[in-house]
Amino acid sequence: MVQTAQRDSAPRSMRPVAVAIGLLILIVLAFVARRLSVDVPNVSAGTTPDDPFSVRYVEHPWRAYLHIAPGVVYLLGAPFQLSRRFRTRHYTIHRRMGRVLLSCALLSGTFALVFGIPFAWGGGLEASATVVFGAWFVACLVLAFRAIRGDNVPQHRRWMIRAFAVGVGIGTIRIWVGIFEGIEQTRSGGTTPATPDHTMFGVAFWLAFTMHVLIGEWWLRRTPALDG
Ligand code: HEM
């Protein structure tokens, strides 16, 4: 009875979640576009950008873009993989795309550590969040892979949802950064700073990723009936 109620209410409760995920992905894409608009001209001309935030990306493009590019592919493909409708209708595509997206996510997660630890704008706060949540992201992906190799579909779904919850959290980091900048601007009565404050950037990492891990767990409790 409880199972039936959960199954019935799931599609309705999924709509706001789907909208929120869509908005977060759009935010990430906007920041990717902004990154490219600064990095591509500077890297091709061999010049250094004015703002110190961007300097790290221009000086270490391989590390940065081996994180960003596969991360974008993963973020765009994962919602289809997580959609039960898509999975049941296109199971072969789900399996093939799954291999590509898993590789992309593992690459992006690894380079989050390779770029994010030594060059963290948010210093120790950001670097520590990167270690904790980057390792969690990679661990979830590996456990999801292990589960499906053992034909354990419910566990595969659970670990993939956990991984995605962290991945999409990158959009929420930018929302927190925006909120902090708005507060700072109001307090000082000045204009928006050209670069984010270091501490606030690190705090945004911890806040956003912690929120997303918890939301992921909440979602798994809410939708146990969708196991399998
Ligand atoms: C999976 C999808 C992901 C995408 C599409 C993505 C995308 C991006 C983008 C676009 C940036 C540049 C941000 C900017 O210019 O403002 C960035 C930076 C960064 N990302 Fe990711 N990311 C993803 C996942 C992750 C994960 C799971 C972590 C690990 C915790 C992570 C850690 C970082 C770090 C540490 C930076 C450097 C921030 C800095 O100090 O400038 N990302 N990412």
Largest sheet: none
Bound molecules: protoporphyrin IX containing FE
* Total helical segments: 9
User: Regarding quaternary structure, how should these chains be classified?
Assistant: single chain
SS class? mainly alpha
First-to-last CA distance: 18 Å
Our estimate of the beta-strand percent is under 5%
Order of helices and strands: HHHHHHHHH
Please specify the SSE layout and strand pairing:
Layout: H1 2-45, H2 52-59, H3 61-82, H4 84-89, H5 91-116, H6 123-149, H7 153-167, H8 169-188, H9 198-222
Helix pairs in contact: 1-2, 1-3, 1-8, 2-3, 3-5, 3-7, 5-6, 6-7, 6-9, 7-9, 8-9
The protein binds protoporphyrin IX containing FE.
How would you describe the overall organization of this protein?
It is a single chain. The chain has 228 residues and is an all-alpha fold. The protein has one domain (2-226). The chain has helices at 2-45, 52-59, 61-82, 84-89, 91-116, 123-149, 153-167, 169-188, 198-222. The longest helix has 44 residues, at 2-45. It is globular. The two termini are 18 Å apart. It binds protoporphyrin IX containing FE (HEM). Residues 28, 31-32, 35, 67-68, 71-72, 74-75, 108-109, 112, 115-116, 120-121, 126, 130, 133-134, 137, 166-167, 170 line the site of protoporphyrin IX containing FE.
